[in-house]
């Protein structure tokens, strides 16, 4: 679960970031889960991996003002940008 939910996201960002950097623009769509906002019985590892992904992506936004991120899960969508 850690390999897919965390390392997979990091690898995807690492692949796309050089082109985004060249363009000084880019969007990341982060498909997450409501589980990132609380731990469910029997789902602690899943919840932690989803929360970690959200925090990692938020860190990128703070360091890259030209980067826009859209977080999505079944219950809500949240757009995050340097201006917010």
Protein model, in words:
It is a single chain. Strand 1, helix 2 (44-63) and strand 2 (67-72) form a beta-alpha-beta unit. With 84 residues, this protein is an alpha+beta fold. Helix content is 50%, strand content 19%. It has a 3-stranded mixed β-sheet. It is built from 2 helices and 3 strands; from the N terminus they run αβαββ. Helix 1 (2-23) runs parallel beside helix 2.
Query: What is the chain-wise order of helices and strands?
Result: HEHEE
The quaternary structure here is single chain
Q: Indicate the proportion of strand residues.
A: 15-25%
Rough outline:
elongated
State the end-to-end distance.
Answer: 31 Å
Rounded to an integer in angstroms, the radius of gyration calculated over CA atoms is 13 Å
Record keyword descriptors for this entry.
84 residues; three-stranded mixed beta sheet; 2 helices; 19% strand; alpha+beta
Secondary structure blueprint with pairings:
Layout: H1 2-23, E1 26-31, H2 44-63, E2 67-72, E3 77-80
Parallel strand pairs: 1-2
Antiparallel strand pairs: 2-3
């Amino acid at each position: 679960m850690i390999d897919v939910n965390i390392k997979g996201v990091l690898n995807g960002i690492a692949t796309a970031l050089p082109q985004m950097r060249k363009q000084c623009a880019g969007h990341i769509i982060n498909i997450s889960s409501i589980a990132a906002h609380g731990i469910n019985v029997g789902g602690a590892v899943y919840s932690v991996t989803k929360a970690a992904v959200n925090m990692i992506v938020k860190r990128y936004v703070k360091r890259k003002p030209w980067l826009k991120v859209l977080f999505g899960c079944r219950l809500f969508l949240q757009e995050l940008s340097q201006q917010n």
